[in-house]
Design brief:
alpha/beta; Double Stranded RNA Binding Domain; 174 residues; six-stranded mixed sheet; 31% strand
Length: 174
Amino acid sequence: MIKRSVLSALVLVMSMFFSACSVTLSGASVPLEMKTINVGFFENNAPLVVSNLSTLFTEALKDRIRSQSRLSIVRGEADAIMEGTITGYSIAPVSIQATNNNTAPIATASRLTITVSVKYVNNTKDKAKSPNFEQSFSRYTDFTGDINSQEQALIRIVNQQLTEDIFNKAFANW
């Protein structure tokens, strides 16, 4: 009886200990001297323009940096600068179905693709952990049905993918 209660107490103490511990595996390796970043507004230069895409993308990138690093986002002079443009926004069929009545085939699934050109400059001395780059990033999500009813949700999905890729390129040395 005593062994069982000791074992129960030990399990309780261990579970309390492990529940108080947490490990974060964000993979971010921001140089210690880097404290601030200036994230410029990403203008939409894509041939197909969605009126709020620039704002949605820029804010999603800022949110990613705020939530996964200790950096403060500032305007003007900063330890790092991230800027760029949205260069592509397209909707294309990925799956088509033939029709029986001599009409054009119809798309059964479509793909929303967004492409962003990003320039990142690390103004600190430690460029090894976070090297400068200039690169295009492109991501997509597939969908069915009418784009109009789901476009904003699809944009959020693609923005999440893009900001993860950009953040990892700038701050994750895997």
